[in-house]
Each structure stands twice: as structure tokens, then as C-alpha cells.
């Protein structure tokens, strides 16, 4: 499979945005785009802020891949594409949301933008059923959160998936600030 230049450019730009906004550390997170019956996905352990063509893998419907070993989240991305209309998926380690995720099953954004776009965000507990739980939650939500780990967002484009991850982390940061101002733990 030949990686279309536009796809490479989109993954590079979104990867740079995630890294420069502190939504992933040097080697964290992953990105994918649906392509026909398969998908383009970042390789395992790649640096999202420094993506090159050699870091992008193509995964076929039967699971075999071309290019570098795909992300360790490949089965989750495939499951999301199988049961939702997502065209792109972004995974990022949003730190304020991670801090808030330990004590709740649902995050309700306190700010106008977050409430408008996201309404509420399910927090999934890590475990043997997390793949199917994250994918099914994304049938009705734009973004869901794996407790203590990170966000998974879907979009019609990779830009849209980036938007939902950034909106969630902004809301989480506002919630943390709000709690610190009001003295709540
Ligand atoms: Zn992760």
C-alpha cells in the first residue's frame, strides 16, 4: 500500500499538535485513519511529534500489516471502525483528565465549550472488556476515557478527533482549576 501524501501530512500535523500541547509525551499516544476496509495507523512506540512515512503502518481487515509493527492499540482501533462510523481515531494521554478519572465513572464538562460539544464523557475501567467497552461507548459519544490512562476520540477526520481530545482536556483543566479555587480535593 502506498501512503497518500495527504494522509501522511494530516497524521504529521495532528501528531505535532498533540505533542506540542502536552497531550502526549515523546512516545505516547496513537492515531489512525480508516482507508477502505483497512486503516492507516501509527507504528508502535513512534513519536507522534516527529512522524515520518516509515512510522505509518497499513492494517488489513484480516489483521496483517504492511510497514512497521502497528500500534499496540490496533485491535481497539479496528473494533472502533467495525462498530462505529468513525473515519479517524486519536488516542492521547491527557493529563488533567487522567488525574480526574480515578474517582468517577462519568465526566461532565463544567465549561460552555465542553458541555456543548461533549455533553458527558464515560470513564471506562481498565480490564479484559475495555476494548469492547471503549468501542461501544464511541457509538454514541465523540470521546471516551480509559481510567488512569487516556482519551480515545473519533471523528469524520483526524482533525475532528483532535478537536474532541483537546476540548476534553481543556474542560478537565478547567475542572481542576475550579476545584483548586474552591478548595475541593
Ligand atoms: Zn495510551
SSE blueprint and pairings:
Blueprint: H1 5-20, E1 30-35, E2 38-42, E3 56-59, E4 65-66, H2 74-83, E5 88-92, H3 95-100, E6 106-107, H4 112-118, E7 121-124, H5 130-137, E8 143-146, E9 150-155, H6 158-182
Parallel strand pairs: 7-8
Antiparallel strand pairs: 1-2, 1-5, 2-3, 3-4, 5-9, 6-7, 8-9
Give me some keywords for this one:
185 residues, alpha+beta, L-fuculose-1-phosphate Aldolase, 9-stranded mixed beta sheet, 6 helices, 39% helix, globular, binds zinc ion
Task: Describe what this molecule looks like in 3D.
This protein has 185 residues and is an alpha+beta fold. The chain has a single domain, classed as Class II aldolase/adducin N-terminal domain (L-fuculose-1-phosphate Aldolase, 3-Layer(aba) Sandwich). The chain contains six helices and nine strands, in the order αββββαβαβαβαββα. Strand 3 and strand 4 form a beta hairpin. Helix 1 runs parallel beside helix 6 and helix 2 packs across helix 5.
Amino acid at each position: 500500500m502506498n501512503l497518500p501524501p495527504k494522509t501522511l501530512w494530516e497524521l504529521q500535523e495532528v501528531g505535532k499538535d498533540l505533542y506540542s500541547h502536552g497531550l502526549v509525551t515523546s512516545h505516547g499516544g496513537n492515531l489512525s485513519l480508516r482507508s477502505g476496509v483497512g486503516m492507516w495507523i501509527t507504528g508502535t512506540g513512534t513519536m507522534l511529534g516527529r512522524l515520518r512515512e516509515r512510522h505509518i503502518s497499513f492494517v488489513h481487515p484480516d489483521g496483517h500489516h504492511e510497514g512497521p509493527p502497528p500500534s499496540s492499540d490496533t485491535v481497539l482501533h479496528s473494533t472502533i471502525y467495525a462498530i462505529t462510523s468513525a473515519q479517524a481515531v486519536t488516542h492521547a494521554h491527557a493529563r488533567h483528565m487522567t488525574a480526574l478519572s480515578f474517582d468517577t465513572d462519568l465526566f461532565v464538562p463544567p465549561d460552555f465549550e465542553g458541555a456543548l460539544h461533549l455533553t458527558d464523557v464515560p470513564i471506562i475501567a481498565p480490564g479484559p472488556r475495555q476494548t469492547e467497552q471503549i468501542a461501544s461507548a464511541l457509538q454514541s459519544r465523540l470521546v471516551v476515557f480509559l481510567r488512569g490512562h487516556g482519551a480515545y476520540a473519533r471523528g469524520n477526520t483526524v482533525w475532528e478527533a483532535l478537536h474532541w481530545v483537546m476540548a476534553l482536556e481543556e474542560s478537565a483543566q478547567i475542572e481542576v482549576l475550579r476545584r483548586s479555587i474552591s478548595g475541593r480535593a
